[in-house]
Specification:
alpha+beta, twelve-stranded antiparallel β-sheet, two-stranded antiparallel sheet, 23% strand
């Protein structure tokens, strides 16, 4: 493993409060002032020798799940109810002989029961079937996500549901955290983060310990996208429950491992048309590209126009992590009610086709396409495609027209 050396920390300001950074000035003079001061730590934070990329991945994933509990639901419900009652006044008790712990609290307002094990938290509603809406909510742990990946973690969730007697009908991502970790021996200074971020008006929230910067939040607390840049190594020391990260990073325990982490909530995942786990895994690289190039960036002060400024070399390294999330598939953010180009849908479906083909073990694009079409047709045979089409058309400001007449084959 590599040996780590931590640099000294610089004084910071604005403990634990929201601050709005100054609008960055322009021109070469500003760049000289911003980057040449010998007393500013980020003056030495200029080239690849000043940091090392360690890892990137999905660190948190919440999913809403539609489950059919079948005929065993009454017995399961009674057992959950009994366990919930017994857990009152405790931090949780063993349920069903383990490995589950049941807690007295649920997840209001939809999920009455809370089951917990090392790999996940499972919140279960009172409904026997999830045909119309999710009746289970699951939060997967960082440990299983880093060691098994998104699909492996969701596969484990599926096996847990089946062991409890349920059958999963559908899984939708509700929240995901994407991150990239860097060893930065000199640390990150608040001055650097405030001075070079674009756009400059974005709200910033700070957490500090004494004179040391620990966390910077960019974006409002209730925003569907929020960036968190923080001292991950300090978090590991304080919490002491994630020592398995050091082998993943390939370094010995040390200071100044910094994480760049984006939190995406359900509202924005919908805008990216990410409705399935497969859609999420396919779009991870594209999401990272959007977040680090369009949503926020850190740029040198070498132009008055912020859009023409050069990305800071470290942020370029952050942007390059998009290739570490798998095959890069472009994504396009479409506001609710907004229109995506046909090209976006083609690109998205083409990316999903690869994952679908791998799942069914069919390497021929023609045959895989036909199988995907059959699966899509079967999906919509059980639903009203025209109604969904009409609703979407109205949302886009277009008249859907009349429902199409059926031909002799019974197809629209």
């Amino acid at each position: 493993m590599a040996y780590c050396v931590s640099g000294q920390r610089e004084d910071q300001d604005a403990v634990g409060r929201d601050v709005d950074g100054p609008s960055a000035g322009g021109g070469a003079a500003a760049a000289a002032v911003g980057m040449a001061s010998s007393v500013t730590r980020h003056a030495y934070f200029a080239g690849p020798e000043d940091w090392a990329s360690l890892a990137c991945g999905v660190d948190s994933l919440d999913v809403s799940v539609q489950v059919d509990w079948g005929s065993g639901w009454p017995m399961l419900f009674d057992s959950l109810e009994e366990g919930k009652t017994e857990a009152a006044g405790t931090k949780g008790i063993l349920w069903g002989g383990g490995p589950w712990v049941i807690r007295a609290s649920g997840r209001a307002p939809m999920y009455r029961f809370h089951l917990q094990r090392a790999e996940l938290n499972l919140f279960v509603g009172k409904s026997q079937t999830g045909e119309k809406q999710a009746n289970v909510y699951a939060s997967l742990s960082a440990d299983i996500l880093w060691h098994k990946g998104v699909e492996g973690a969701v596969g484990f969730l599926r096996s847990c549901i089946e062991e409890l007697g349920g059958q999963i009908l559908e899984v939708k991502p509700s929240r995901v955290d994407l991150c990239a970790d860097f060893l930065i021996p000199s640390g990150l200074a608040l001055e650097f983060l405030r001075q070079f971020r674009v756009p400059a008006h974005t709200k910033i929230r700070l957490e500090e310990q004494g004179e040391n910067l620990e966390t910077v939040y960019i974006g409002a607390r209730n925003s569907p996208i929020q960036l968190r840049i923080y001292d991950k190594s300090t978090e590991l020391v304080v919490k002491g429950n994630k020592d398995w990260f050091w082998p993943i990073w390939g370094i010995d325990p040390c200071a100044d491992v910094w994480r760049v982490e984006f939190q995406l909530r359900r509202a924005v995942l919908r805008e990216f048309r990410i409705e399935t786990v497969q859609g999420l895994t396919t779009g991870l690289g594209g999401l990272w590209e959007y977040l680090t190039e369009k949503w926020v960036s850190f740029r040198l002060l070498d132009d008055v126009n912020t859009t023409r400024r050069t990305a800071h070399p470290w942020w370029e390294a952050v942007q390059e992590q998009k290739t570490g999330f798998g095959e890069l598939v472009q994504v396009e953010r479409c506001k609710v009610g907004g229109d995506c180009s046909p090209h976006w849908y083609v690109s998205h479906i083409a990316g999903c086709l690869v994952g679908f083909a791998a799942c069914i073990g069919m390497g021929d694009i023609g045959k895989a396409s036909m199988e995907l079409w059959r699966a899509i047709k079967d999906h919509w045979d059980r639903r009203d495609f025209w109604e969904a089409f009409a609703v979407r058309s109205v949302q886009l400001g277009r008249a859907p027209g009349e429902r199409g007449a059926r031909d002799e084959s019974g197809e629209n």
